[in-house]
Structures are given as structure tokens and as C-alpha cells.
Amino acid sequence: MNNSVKEVEKALDRCGLVLNDDFVLELLKWHRSDWKSALRYFYWVSKGGRKKMYSPGSSVYNEMIDILGRMKRFMELGEVFDEMSGLGLVNERTFGILLNRYAGAHKVDEAIEVFYKRREFGLELDLSAFQTLLLSLCRYKHVETAESLFVEKKNEFPLDIKTLNIILNGWCVRGNLREAKRFWKDILDSACKPDMFTYGIFINSLTKSGKVSTATKLFRSMSENGCAPDVVICNCVIDSLCFKKRIPQALEIFKEMKERGGCPPNVATYNSLIKHLCKIVRMEKVYELLEEMEEKKGSCTPNEITFICLLKAAKKPEEVRGVLERMKRNDCRVAGDTYNMILKLFLDWNDVQGVQSVWTEMEKNGVGPDQRSYTIMIHRLHKKVE
């Protein structure tokens, strides 16, 4: 151990800290991007800390293992894990972290090996643990391996829709629609019935791939198959229809959401419609929806995204002032980026009073002016001089 490390440890000893897991965890989290400092402090706590009648628990060891895994320091991780094992502190969370970090480093064989190590610590190789392994592999795009394991172990673990959803989502996240379609058909041919998550995963993938008609058709089939869509799935279909300029169809689904019990629209639903209606300048319909949001409140209360759509569609200063007034009425705080956007609009319109009022308001509310604000001012004024 070099002198600088010894000096740090002596300084820590002199601090007279009262150690507990919460305090140690906070310090480790503070150093998540500096694994050397975190590990130095961890070793001081786990060894020297005992003089203060404190021994770190599972949560502290798990945090240190997660930091080392994130930074791909697997030799040091192994040392900490061995120490943890000797103290009998290994738990389910430990294995979840190890699987995630080995898969994230593309150490697939090591991740599978960790899964089987559970037996050494008295933990079962059950369906839940197997799903955690598959989830970790799929998260880091090792879907082929995950599906091969699933097929290989089909007689060891019961067939479960959650397992199928993990692999389907893996293919969808990979952006491999061909494999996702194949696996979707496998699910339909299996003894498992697709649930809302299965539909949601596949519909989302279809919309991202531009297959909006197929996605809408599948969406329509959900209720027929006894699986009513939730607001997230409805919003996904509405947004994709709007993107393809099929707004009448989107409004039809929106109307059904309002009329049908169990799946009322939320602020995201309204924002999708407002964003696309603003683009085609159907402002009468936009303000009709906005008034509806203000009446309903709760999960439909307009937010900054709503008002940014309106600001982008503004054609004159009076409209911007109206939007700002409406934001205040709805207790919607104006962020620095929004002020900068408004500043740009007023400068483009040569509205000196508007520029001054925005600048003053930014200062008053403590959200600027920032570097971006000055850049906008300089660029716009320079342009006008030219």
C-alpha cells in the first residue's frame, strides 16, 4: 500500500465518523464513477471500520460490486464477492447485480456460470432466477443466447408468459422485426395466452418499424381476444397514426378511450394529438383539446410539453403572451429552455418589449439568462446588423 493511501486512511481514522450502512451507501454512491476512491473507502470501512464496532451489511457489499461491475473491474469485483461470501452476506440482489454486470460486459459464459453458482449459497434455481438471467442477457442484446437457453431448459422451468415476453422484448429492442414476428407466432402457437405486456411490446415494435396498419390491426384485436389495452398502448398507436398523418383514425381511438371505461386518456394522449394538430395548423381543435384538459385536470392537466407545442405553432407575439398566461393559470413553471425558445421568437419578430420582458422574467425566476440565452441574442442581433 503506498503512502498516499495510508495518509487517506489515517485522515479517515481521525474523522471520528459514526458509521452505519446508510451513511456508507451515500458515500459509495457519491463515488460511483470513481471506482478507486470508492474501493479505497470500502476497504477502510470493511476492515478499519470494525474498530468502530461496525461491519458493513449486504447492501454496502452489493453497492461496491455494482460499482466495480459497471466499471468492468472484474478482478476487484471477484475479491469483494469472495469476502462477502465468507461473511454469508450474499443474497438475491447480489446475483441480480452480477448477472446484469457480466451480461453488460458481454461476458455471457460468466453470467450463465453465476446463475448456476446460486446452489452454492443455498439459493434455488427457480423460474424467477432464470427470468432474471434471460432479462440480463436480452437487455444487452444477447437475445440468441437467451432464446437458446429458454429452449434448452424448457423441461426444467415451467412455460410462463413473462419468460416469453422477456425474449420477445429482446428481439424488439434489437430492432429485429423479422425475429420478433417469428417469436410472436411461437407465442400464439404455445400454451400461453398473450397478456397486455405481450401486445404492448409487439405493438410498440411494429410502430417503431413504421408498420402502423399492422400495429393498429393488432391493437383492434386485443379487446376481441379478451385483453383490453391500457393507456400506454393506446397512446403508442395514437402517436404513430398521427405521425403518419392519419389523424382521423387517431381521433377515433381517442374518442373510444373517453367513452370506454377503464382506459381514459391522460396528458400524454392529449399531447400527442396537440403536437400533430399544431403541425397541420388545426388550431381550433388544438384549443378545444386544451380546454378539455383544463376542465378534467388531474392526470390530464396540461404540462410544459403541451405548451411548448403551442409556442412552436405561435405566429405572433400576442399568441406567445396568451400561452404564457395560460401556463401561469395551470401552475406550469417555465423552464430555461422554454424561455430561450420564446426569446428567439420575440427576436425574430423584432418585438423589443417582448425580449425585455422575457429577459427580466428569467432573472426574476432564477432560470437564466444562461449561456444559450446570450448566444441567441448575439446571433440574432448580428444577423439583423448584416
Automatic annotation (TrEMBL):
Q: Which NCBIfam families match?
A: PPR
Gene3D superfamilies per the record?
Answer: Tetratricopeptide repeat domain (1.25.40.10)
PPR repeats span: 91-125, 160-194, 195-229, 230-264, 266-296
Q: Which Pfam families match?
A: PPR, PPR_2
GO annotation, biological process:
mitochondrion organization; RNA processing
* Gene Ontology molecular function: mRNA binding
Record InterPro entries: Mito_RNA_Proc_CCM1 (IPR051114), PPR_rpt (IPR002885), TPR-like_helical_dom_sf (IPR011990)
Please report the name of this protein according to its UniProt entry.
Pentatricopeptide repeat-containing protein
Alphabetized, the UniProt keywords read: Repeat
Q: Which GO terms describe its cellular component?
A: mitochondrion
Query: What superkingdom heads the lineage?
Result: Eukaryota
Q: Which organism does this record belong to? A: Coptis chinensis
